[in-house]
Design goal:
This protein folds into 2 domains: 1-30; 36-248, Orthogonal Bundle (MetI-like fold). It has 10 helices and no strands. The protein has helices at residues 2-28, 38-50, 53-85, 87-100, 109-116, 120-144, 148-156, 161-199, 204-213, 217-248.
Length: 254
C-alpha cells in the first residue's frame, strides 16, 4: 500500500511539473523555438529512442562514468582508510586536499585535454576528480569516528593491521562512507555531462551540445530529461548497493 501511495505521489509531482511548464509557455507566450512545449519534447524523446542515438550516447556516457567513478571510489577508500589511521600523515596532506577540493574539475580541462587529447579519457579524468575528494574526505572522517571499543577488541584478539582495516574498520565506517558515495555519484554525474560538453564527440553531454548547435531545443530538453532520469536511477542503484553491503555485514536492520 505504501509503495502505491509513493508511486502516486511521484506521478502527481511530474504531472504538476508538466502542467506548470505548459502554463508558463501559455502565459509567457513563448515561441516553440525558445521554449518547446512538453508534447514536442516528448516527440523528440521518442525520435531519439527510435533512431537508436539515445542508446549509443547513453552507453558511452555510462562507460565513462563507471570507469571514472569506480576507480575514484576504490582509490579514495583505500587512501582514506590509511590516512584515517595515520593521522600524522593526514595532518600534512589535509591542507593540500582542502585547497584542491573546491577547484572545479572543469578548471583542469585545458591541461587534461593537452595531456590526454580528445576522446574518452578527458571525461573519465574529470569524473575521477569530481568523485575522488568527497569519498576520500568521508572515508577519513568515518575512520576517525569508529568506536574505540572495536579497536580494543581487535587488539585483544591480536588481529593483524591488514585484517583490522578490512574486517573491523571498513564495516564500522561504511555507513558514513556511504554518504560520500552518494555525494560523489551526484557530483561525478554532473561533471560527466560538463566534461562531454568540453572535449567529447559522443555521450549525453555531447548530445545536448550538438542539439543546441543545430537549434533543436526540443532535443536539448530531451537530453536534459535523459540526464535527470539516469542520475536518479544511478542514485537508486547506489542505495541498493548500500543495503546489500549492510545485509552482508549483518547491519540491515540497524
Amino acid at each position: 500500500m505504501g509503495s502505491v501511495k509513493k508511486l502516486s505521489n511521484v506521478i502527481a509531482g511530474f504531472v504538476l511539473l508538466i502542467a506548470a511548464w505548459q502554463i508558463t509557455i501559455i502565459i509567457g507566450n513563448y515561441d516553440e523555438a525558445l521554449l518547446p512545449p512538453p508534447l514536442k519534447v516528448w516527440e523528440g524523446i521518442v525520435s531519439l529512442i527510435k533512431d537508436g542515438s539515445f542508446f549509443v550516447h547513453l552507453q558511452v556516457s555510462l562507460m565513462r562514468f563507471l570507469i571514472g567513478y569506480l576507480s575514484a571510489v576504490i582509490i579514495a577508500v583505500i587512501l582514506g582508510l590509511i590516512f584515517g589511521r595515520v593521522l600524522a600523515l593526514w595532518n600534512i596532506l589535509d591542507p593540500v586536499v582542502q585547497v584542491l577540493r573546491p577547484v572545479s574539475p572543469i578548471a583542469w580541462s585545458p591541461f587534461i585535454v593537452l595531456w590526454f587529447g580528445i576522446g574518452d579519457i578527458p571525461a573519465i579524468v574529470i569524473i575521477f576528480i569530481a568523485a575522488f575528494f568527497p569519498v576520500l574526505l568521508s572515508t577519513v572522517s568515518a575512520v576517525r569516528k569508529v568506536d574505540p571499543i572495536y579497536l580494543k577488541v581487535a587488539q585483544n584478539f591480536e588481529i593483524r593491521k591488514s585484517h583490522l582495516l578490512v574486517k573491523i574498520i571498513l564495516p564500522a565506517a561504511f555507513p558514513f562512507i556511504a554518504n560520500g558515495l552518494h555525494i560523489a555519484l551526484g557530483t561525478a554525474w554532473i561533471f560527466l555531462v560538463a566534461g562531454e560538453m568540453v572535449g567529447a564527440q559522443s555521450g549525453l553531454g555531447y548530445l545536448i551540445v550538438d542539439a543546441r548547435n543545430s537549434m533543436n531545443l526540443d532535443l536539448v530538453l530531451a537530453g536534459i530529461i535523459f540526464i535527470g532520469v539516469c542520475g536518479l536511477l544511478l542514485d537508486k542503484a547506489i542505495g541498493l548497493f548500500e543495503k546489500w553491503v549492510d545485509r552482508q555485514w549483518g547491519r540491515a536492520n540497524q
